[in-house]
Structures are given as structure tokens and as C-alpha cells.
Design brief:
The chain is mainly alpha-helical. The chain is built from 7 helices and 3 strands, in the order ααβααββααα.
């Protein structure tokens, strides 16, 4: 599932700022195995998605007050509290499943796979 589909399913636009942060963090945790974020990262993500950028100081204060997040690995780094992740896993089960995308090319075997093969194999394959 891509980020735009997730935004639609999660009703992202109607959520409050901290919930948007939680949804973005959960999405990146499950889709890209990124378990931490900074307020600067959130600022950039929201801007790229076309949403108004939050006040970083206010956002940082709200994150620290919230029980949904815990401190991350680095300075000004945060992550979702593990207890918070479980309900989201059940609410969005399609994020935990990996999808297989098949890209069609006009060849049977990709040439990059054949770069180190013997020349007679290459000539045989190209002859097909």
C-alpha cells in the first residue's frame, strides 16, 4: 500500500496534528521499517504530502506530553510506544502484509542477471 492509499483509508485529513504524526509514524514503521522520527522529518513529510507544516516547537512539546510516543535513539528523536502499535496493526492489517509487485518487461530474463554468465549461454538466450 502506498502512502496516498493509506492517507485515504485512515482519514488522515480529518485527524488532529498528533494523530497525523502517529499515523505517519506507523505507516513508515510497517512499510519501511523506520521506527524513529524527528520533528524535522515530520515537517518535511507533511509538506511533501501537501499538508500545512506544523509548528515544530509546539509539535515537540505535544510529543513529549503524549503517552503515545517515547524517546528515540538520537537527540530530538521519537518513536511510537509499542503498546500504541498493536491497535493500529489490527486496524490496518494490509500494512503488515507485504505485497508482491510484478513489473512486466519485454524480455524473459533481465539482462542484469546475465552480466556474468558464460558467452555461450548469452548467445543461446539472445537467439531465443
Amino acid at each position: 500500500m502506498n502512502i496516498k492509499e493509506f492517507i485515504k483509508i485512515s482519514q488522515f485529513s480529518s485527524q488532529k496534528e498528533l494523530c497525523k504524526l502517529l499515523l505517519l509514524s506507523f505507516y513508515h514503521l510497517r512499510q519501511q521499517s523506520i521506527d524513529h522520527f524527528t520533528t524535522a522529518t515530520v515537517y518535511e513529510l507533511l509538506t511533501k504530502l501537501g499538508y500545512p507544516h506544523p509548528n515544530q516547537t509546539r509539535l515537540k512539546t505535544n510529543i513529549k506530553k503524549s503517552k503515545l510516543f517515547i524517546s528515540g535513539k538520537g537527540k530530538d528523536s521519537y518513536r511510537i510506544h509499542p503498546i500504541t502499535v498493536e491497535p493500529f496493526d489490527s486496524e490496518f492489517p494490509s500494512l503488515t502484509k507485504t505485497s508482491e509487485e510484478i513489473f512486466a518487461h519485454n524480455t524473459i530474463i533481465d539482462e542484469s542477471l546475465l552480466q556474468q554468465e558464460r558467452s555461450f549461454i548469452l548467445s543461446l538466450i539472445k537467439g531465443l
